[in-house]
Write a structure and sequence with these properties.
Elements: H1 28-31, H2 39-42, H3 45-69, H4 80-83, H5 100-119, H6 125-141
Helix pairs in contact: 5-6
């Protein structure tokens, strides 16, 4: 079996200690379609990106280079302004004629996750419909 090890340039011992208990600790897999898609996060993304994007792009470029040198084909997707900093002779740009689909997708992800959290897996259709109506009202209430 062969594989490629991609190492982050910063070593774990260089990182600040992680607090043992924090009210905001959560697994990304558990909040990826709820809190991470919400307005509290989305409005702060530009500020965070401004501070971290250079390091992230350098890491992604180095990782793609390592994997390519190991004989792997690497497909990296992202916003054009970001991936333009990844050196490659191959570039593909996918475009959408209707950009509202992106917002609809995000809303559907948030609604689905909120309903699942509310009623749980295996709920009856009526309970799902009721929770969907309530969660939709909450989502609409977040619109400024």
């Amino acid at each position: 079996s062969s594989g490629v090890l991609v190492r982050h340039p910063r070593r774990c011992r260089d990182l600040p200690p992680r607090p043992k208990t924090s009210p905001t600790q959560a697994l990304v897999s558990k909040i990826k379609n709820t809190e991470l898609k919400g307005p509290k996060v989305s409005k702060n993304i530009p500020t965070v990106a401004e501070q971290t994007q250079g390091e992230v792009v350098k890491f992604a470029a180095a990782a793609a280079q390592q994997m390519g040198e190991a004989g792997l084909i690497v497909l990296l997707e992202g916003r054009e302004a970001t991936v333009n900093y990844i050196p490659s002779p191959y570039r593909y740009t996918l475009t959408m004629s209707d950009h509202t689909v992106l917002g609809q997708r995000r809303a559907a992800q948030r609604l689905g996750a909120a309903v699942l959290k509310e009623v749980g897996a295996g709920a009856a259709d009526a309970a799902i419909a009721e929770a969907l109506t309530a969660c939709c009202g909450t989502l609409v209430g977040e619109i400024p």
